[in-house]
Each structure stands twice: as structure tokens, then as C-alpha cells.
Prior knowledge:
This protein is mainly beta. The protein is about 10% helix and about 35% strand. The two termini are about 15 Å apart.
Amino acid sequence: MKNIRIIKTDINVSKIKKQLEEHSTDWNYQKELQHATVLDPDVYLSQSGVLQLVIGTIDKPCEYVFDSEGCVPAPAYYRHTEAISFMKRHFKDFKRCGFLSIPIGGEVGRHMDFGTYYLNKDRYHLSIQGRYLYTVGDESVVVEPGTLFWFDNKQEHSAKNIGDDVRITLVFDVPHKKSNP
């Protein structure tokens, strides 16, 4: 497959999951941040829950976060140390990251990540909980908890929860390097 690459399976994600349970009120907290604006909810519809660890920032109100390299740790960054440690151990350098959830039977429709921010980043998922069908272009894979994979987020991609639990995944961006898995 050229659009999806499984890097590793059977990763023990229990410590990451435990911290998610301990800090369950962190989900969707970004809506309450001062000086933060959520993109138009009538345009950017999603069933996903979001728990951002590193948030994209802009310098001027007229900018879009998709075209900005700005990144800042969110308050939850300091509570979800197991996820941060995982990324540092495996990639050393990472940029925006956070957890996304999809309810049982829910899905995130086909979309592409656009903007200059994504041009020099590789996108990864570490599946924490649930089973989901991930599609990139014309390729699909069933993702189990404990799976780390790369995908080409410059292609249309989607996710459908096909399991019996809420799907939770850690999504993160790594500056592109030939040495990236």
C-alpha cells in the first residue's frame, strides 16, 4: 500500500488510556480557551471528540491555522505525559497532536488536510481504543488498538468506527524526513 503504512502493531497503550480516563474532562476543553476560535461548526461538521495536546496558532486574525507553522502546548499536554513520551521516544520531534474520538457507529467523512502547514509534515495515528476502518484514497485497513500507522493526509481520507467501543486515536504530525517510518 502506498497511502497507508502500518509501522507497528500490539503496542501497549494501557498507560496512555489510563491517563485519558484520569483526565476525562480534558475532552473538548479547547472550546473554552480564551482567545481561541473554533472553525465554523456549520461548515466543519464532525462527530469526533477532540483533546488537543499541541494546538496550532496564528499571528494575525486574518490567518488560517492551516497556513501557519505556529504550535503551542495546550494545558492538557502536561497531564498526558504517556502520549508525549511515546511521541518523543519514537519520533523525537513532533508538532500538532491530540486525541480524536468517534462514537460507536460514527464516522469522519472523506476529507483532505489542506494548507501550507501540512506540506512538510507526516501524519501518524496511534490507535488507543476501538476498532475502525481507515480509508486513504482507494486503500483501506482495519485498525486495532495498539497500532501505529502513517498515512498520506494529502489524499482524501476517512474513518468509520466498526467496533463496540468509542474509537480513540492519538493523531500527530512529524516534520517530514527520509528517516521517518
